[in-house]
Design brief:
With about 90 residues, the protein is mostly helical. It has helices spanning about 5-10, 25-45, 50-85. The longest helix has about 35 residues, at about 50-85.
Length: about 90
């Protein structure tokens, strides 16, 4: 088991680059937007269906697109490695 690094370390991952520990404006503002949308959504009594769809697509869609974009370099590395090994 890994030794705990403290809550500040884990929370800094929301806004900072884990390697350089510098603030990432992309991470910072994306998380501010998600937190704002979540707060507004949670405070809306009897949310209509369109609000569920809008909230889900904005918050969930952003996360899926972000993961998809991050996977592209990984897939390129796998393909390059496979080509080097003659597969």
């Amino acid at each position: 088991m890994l030794a705990p690094k403290g809550w500040k370390y884990y929370l800094s991952g929301l806004i900072a680059n884990p390697v350089t520990n510098q603030i990432s404006h992309t991470k910072f503002w994306a998380n501010i937007a998600a937190a704002t949308m979540t707060c507004k959504f949670a405070m809306t009594p009897d949310a209509p269906e369109w609000l569920w769809i809008a909230y889900g697509s904005m918050v969930g869609g952003y996360a899926l697109i972000k993961r998809g974009i991050a996977a592209i370099p990984q897939l390129a590395q796998i393909k390059q490695r496979d080509n080097e090994h003659g597969q």
